[in-house]
Write a structure and sequence with these properties.
400 residues; mainly beta; Porin; 18-stranded antiparallel beta barrel; two-stranded parallel ribbon; 4% helix
């Protein structure tokens, strides 16, 4: 592997941003009620966030790829008038260095969210381009790590009328993917329904039941029906999560298969240190197909190196078993996390592979005045799949 060199441009941007006060800007909640439309606008809140990032990718046998980029997000959240409120966010991604390809942070300016919301009692309705993050984002998420977030065009309903229960339903017309509007892969037209019910009435944790019925009109191979259950929680210092789902091809998917998803994780907190270990299976139905997660925040799973994106499906032929362990702690205001993944093929006859590869990574993060800084590193060692790859991210973010 070639040595990675730390660029100075990101650190310069971080130092320039140290005077910016911190405030969550990704989605400002409407906290005031107006008596007129004019007041709803005048009492609204504007937001601005800046995220500078340098990413370096060193793949064995090729030259190192570097990209330093700046994401600028402008937002405005209105106050509430007769139950109605509105949110708009504009994102701009600018490259500070020459773009060489190979990194999924394209340049461009676009609407990230444009939502009209109505709240009545325990029910909230949203129409327009919106952020949808369900459970741990293993099946439906926003890929928030990337500079261009994944959002959804459609209609959603959230209801909390039942005690300790949240009901969520959405119809998605279009998925605004991380590749940007100028890319032919940027948008996927959909006729998709998302159902998720979460019950938190037991002290041991939360139980979710879901049905994700994806009909992808632009990529029929992503069309699936997925049904599952998830339980996650903690008791004292013990942490745990269990999940099972089954999936079949749907709509115009040319494949015909049924595959399973299984997840089990346990952890324990020793003071400021948290240890976790887990097992995740994205199974295969022989050569007919495998369990896929095309709406997921894939970067969170199977290692940060993104070796198993599978063209956006989140899996490869023969399926993937992931056995992993992680450690996290906080010391003097600095957060540190370490992880290790061993990735194997679920069906070696289909894939022609056994041990796919292993990966370790770490992230260190903290604040310099009002600027959040992080250094993240991932190293993938190939066995039967792909090639050795190192990735490094330096990020500085300020919100106001």
């Amino acid at each position: 592997m070639k040595t990675m060199h730390q660029p100075l441009s990101l650190l310069t941007l971080a130092l320039c941003a140290t005077t910016v006060p911190a405030q969550a800007a990704d989605e400002v909640e409407s906290t005031s009620t107006a008596s007129t439309v004019g007041e709803a606008l005048s009492q609204g809140k504007a937001s601005l966030s800046l995220r500078a990032r340098s990413e370096q990718v060193n793949t064995e046998g090729t030259d190192t790829v570097d990209l330093t980029s700046l994401k600028t997000r402008l937002g405005f959240q209105s106050a509430t008038f007769r139950g109605f409120s509105a949110l708009i966010e504009m994102d701009d991604v600018t490259h500070m260095t020459k773009y060489e390809g190979g990194i999924a942070d394209p340049e461009g300016t676009e609407v990230n969210q444009a939502v009209l919301a109505y709240g009545a009692g325990d029910t909230t309705l949203k129409y327009g381009r919106q952020r949808i993050l369900l459970d741990n984002q293993r099946f439906v998420g926003g890929v928030g790590f990337r500079q261009n977030e994944q959002t959804y065009d459609g209609f959603s309903i959230t209801n909390r009328s039942l005690t300790d229960t949240t009901l969520f339903l959405a119809h998605v017309d279009n998925v605004n993917r991380i590749f940007g509007e100028d890319s032919p892969l940027g948008d996927h037209k959909n006729d998709t329904y998302l159902f998720n019910t979460k019950y938190t009435g037991v002290s041991a944790g939360a139980l979710s039941a879901y049905a994700y019925l994806i009909d992808n009109l632009d990529a029929p191979g992503f069309s699936t029906d997925t049904y599952g259950l998830r339980f996650a929680g903690k008791t004292g210092p013990a942490l745990y999560a269990l999940e099972y789902a089954t999936q079949s091809a749907a709509a115009d998917n040319p494949a015909s298969y049924r595959a399973a998803y299984l997840f089990a994780e346990g952890g324990y907190r020793f003071g400021a240190v948290t240890l976790k270990a887990g097992y995740e299976l994205l199974g295969a139905d022989g050569a007919d197909g495998q369990f896929i997660t095309p709406l997921a925040t894939l970067h969170k799973f199977q290692g940060w190196n993104d070796k198993f994106l599978g063209g956006g499906s989140g899996n490869i032929a023969g399926g993937i078993e992931d056995v992993y362990a992680s450690l996290g702690t906080e010391l003097a205001g600095i957060n540190l996390a370490l992880n290790y993944h061993q990735l194997n093929s679920d069906d070696t006859e289909v894939s022609g592979m056994n041990q796919l590869g292993s990966e370790y990574g770490f992230v260190v993060g903290g604040k310099l005045d009002a600027v959040a800084l992080s250094l993240k590193y991932s190293s993938y060692s190939a066995d039967d799949f792909s090639v050795d790859t190192d990735k490094l991210w330096l990020t500085a973010q300020a919100q106001f």
